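Exercise: predict the fold of this chain.
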Amino acid sequence: MLKAKKNWKKVQLANWNETTKSNIKGKSATDGSIKIALDSNKKENSLTQTISTIEGGEYTFSVDAYSSKKNIGSSDFEMIVDGKVVGTFSPTTEWKTYSVTFEGNGQEQSVGFREVASQNNNKGVFLDNAQLSVEAPVATLDLAKSYGVATQGSTPSYAYPEHKAEMGIDGDKASYIYTNSGDNAWYQVAIPKGSTVSKLMVQSLSFSRCKGLSLQYSLQWNSR
């Protein structure tokens, strides 16, 4: 229900689904002229909405909430994603923004609010200004494979002539580089100047082969 002047009126909120027909009430709000009163009829009330999500997107779901003084301690509410509780909050007598985050799965997902079942007593929280934002996943690029120039300190022995430096960055897990032992047992990859590196990954045939391995980097990038 929405409050118009001093009277409560029953109104359906667009895009939101309620568990009962009498659990939506409102009066003066932080955004606009109405707000929602959860736990309005001694039934376990909830509000949910179905959204389309981006796979891997980081979503922030927020809402403004407060409790009347007489309802403090009995107006906790849950924020839910796909029917699961991702945050439980105890509002104060002042407006405050509460938020949760979740990762999108690339399909339709539901978000919403629900009263705490043990506090189902017609003394619920007031909600307003629900917001949903997303930070899309950043596409990653294998710099070494796409633009890297690989070199190594020694040519493989006769037993492994096919294991050349470029095989260490070809993206094929079945291929690998092989150098002779000794002072020239090094391998390096140069990438374009100005590249941003978020992760460095080294794969070995076995853990024992990494014994004594050290990783170093230089700001003297390849000028390509």
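Check your answer against the key: Residues 143-147 form the longest helix (5 residues).
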